[in-house]
Amino acid sequence: MKEYLETERLILRPFLFADAPLIFALNADPEVMKFLPKDEVYTSEEQAADFLDQYIRKAQDWQFSRWTVLRKSDQKKLGWCGLREVEKGEVDLGFRFLREYWGQGYATESGQRWLEYGFNEGKLAQIVAQAAAGNLGSQRVLTKLNFVREPEDDAVAYGFQWLKYRLPAPKERTR
């Protein structure tokens, strides 16, 4: 795994313990968490630090993981984005950004870089994603990234209807 990834405006790097304030800010914001499992809502920075401690240790054994997204111009932490293995051996694209950075293309830009990484270096045949039925912002990002809805794979979990998306690797990249 690379040490970091870049886009025109962003640096993507693995989580550090110093990211606990970012994780807390994301998971304590009711608007950010509106369409996400309630067990991920944090009431203290210590909870975020505990999560990061476990995640960083486990991620050492994973081919893919979620990473912190920083703006190149000022090193401001904007949120996170990345791939991770989920059930059935699928690899899922996920992202979460601080509310003040919504609508500025950061999720699409970082997501696109992860797709390139997953299909090129990761040699993936496909990448999946999910968005809660009410989360129109995330649905728009997935559409911009050319994911295709697969309604037959929708599911209900954590009190939400989850819409399933899939993106096959470009034909010239598949084995």
UniProtKB/TrEMBL annotation:
InterPro entries recorded: Acyl_CoA_acyltransferase, GNAT_dom, N-acetyltransferase
Pfam families named among the record's database cross-references: Acetyltransf_3
Sorted UniProt keywords: Transferase
Ranges that cross the membrane: none
Domain N-acetyltransferase span(s) in chain numbering: 10-168
Signal peptide range: none
PANTHER family: ACETYLTRANSFERASE, GNAT FAMILY, PUTATIVE (AFU_ORTHOLOGUE AFUA_3G00765)-RELATED-RELATED
A molecular-function term among this protein's GO annotations: acyltransferase activity, transferring groups other than amino-acyl groups
Tree of life domain: Bacteria
Protein name stated in the entry: GNAT family N-acetyltransferase
